[in-house]
């Protein structure tokens, strides 16, 4: 029996579009940290030269990555890295300045589960790093140094997620970095915000050192609950 020459399953294998290859190259540079968030990527002529592709191919790739939230095209200025991954870009785009309550609803589950797992899995090196982050958090709050405070606070919470030993959970948590920073920047200047509150921080670290998953989960949840109560009482929520 002769095969049907019109069978679509036997159509010639086609080489992937060049724009897909360019997308992968740009994505790889961003993921590796060579092009960090906030940096401007090489201009269009340089990308054309280095990748040896046409202008239309570069524009198509940049447009696709801008749509996913990975890049931001600023007319007359250049193209900037907006997020480290498409997931991070999507989270930032979907959050889009929404109220802090939505972010807290997501964190409520992630923080508590990360804490419970970290209580069982974190090693001494991870716990010492968390303690250092809390020392920096307190010192920067007292010095009213926002950049240092948000970095230390993030290092602590992301560190707990890393210490969970669950790579997927840690990656999901890290993609909250942009929205969390935006929310905390607004909270910083709001009356009544307490950036050195030990609940869910020093108290959580104590539970982690005691290897108590239930208490660690409670402390992480208490931090989110307290933040939610403050947000609602501040008139922001």
TrEMBL record:
Residues 215-237 are annotated as: Disordered. Residues 16-84 form the HTH gntR-type domain. It holds the Pfam family GntR. PROSITE patterns: HTH_GNTR (PS50949). The keyword DNA-binding applies. InterPro entries: GntR_C, TF_FadR/GntR_C, Tscrpt_reg_HTH_GntR, WH-like_DNA-bd_sf, WH_DNA-bd_sf. Keywords: DNA-binding, Transcription, Transcription regulation. The keyword Nucleotide-binding does not apply. Residues 228-237 have a biased composition (Basic and acidic residues). PANTHER family: REGULATORY PROTEIN GNTR HTH, TRANSCRIPTIONAL REGULATOR, GNTR FAMILY. This is FCD domain-containing protein.
